[in-house]
Design goal:
Keywords: Signal. InterPro entries: AMIN-like (IPR056303). This is AMIN-like domain-containing protein. The protein is mainly beta. It has a single domain, classed as Immunoglobulin-like (Sandwich), CATH 2.60.40. The protein has one helix and 14 strands, in the order βαβββββββββββββ. It has one helix at about 20-25, and strands spanning about 5-10, 45, 50, 60-65, 75-80, 85-90, 100-105, 105-110, 115, 120-130, 160-165, 170-175, 185-190, 195-200. A five-stranded antiparallel sheet has the order 1-5-6-14-13, with no helix packed on it.
Length: about 200
């Protein structure tokens, strides 16, 4: 098994890492998106080597108050031996990233209040305190398809990613998952570039 990563932008592309590259990343304990590796609850097998996954994730809401001034510049996804991952790129920003993530009964968009059922048996709502537009109101990120922000074909856990809009400094995404499964939210910084990372485990 090897991991894949996918991107979505104004001109979306689909990138599939080669088996050799993915194997190298996994051997180094790194995630496909370049984030520190740790793969979710239980253990999985990659070729003949067992991958041991961290435990202790839950399905309760997670949140953090932020003071950052970044904007959404992209959305990516990836699949790993034990979890699927969604990454929200926030570009160069100062301060910290604020976010809220939690399971909800249904997906509801910002401002318009439109509701929609997403694929899968559970819906994970992810809100990041960063707009998808700059100080002049010009978009910094627009998905090509708001109901299919990234391709999740073949992913064990994430079945759909929908765009909930960006309004008053907040951007919302809905993740349709196979079930209400353990999840982890983290913020990664590379220099002054930050990104919000949401991992959803394949199983309890």
């Amino acid at each position: 098994m090897f991991a894949r990563t996918r991107t979505s932008s104004l001109n979306p592309t689909l990138t599939t890492l080669s088996t050799a590259v993915a194997a190298t990343l996994l051997a180094a304990g790194a995630a496909v998106t370049g984030l520190p590796g740790s793969v979710s609850p239980a253990a999985a097998s990659v070729g003949t080597a067992a991958v041991h996954c961290p435990r202790g994730w839950g399905s309760l809401p997670q949140a953090s108050t932020g003071t950052g001034t970044g904007v959404v510049t992209g959305v990516r996804s990836g699949t790993h031996p034990c979890y699927d991952r969604l990454v929200v790129d926030l570009g160069r920003m100062s301060g910290t990233v604020g976010y809220r993530a939690g399971y909800a009964k249904t997906f509801t968009t910002i401002a318009s209040g439109e509701t929609r059922d997403l694929r899968g048996a559970a819906t994970l709502m992810v809100s990041v305190q960063a707009p998808a537009y700059d100080s002049s109101g010009r978009p910094t990120y627009v998905p090509a398809n708001r109901w299919e922000v990234v391709s999740t074909s073949g992913y064990p856990t994430i079945k759909q990613v929908a765009w909930g809009g960006s309004f008053e400094g907040e951007t919302l995404l809905g993740i349709g998952t196979r079930a209400r499964l353990p999840m982890r939210v983290s913020v990664l910084t590379d220099g002054t570039n930050q990104r919000l990372v949401v991992d959803v485990a394949h199983r309890w």
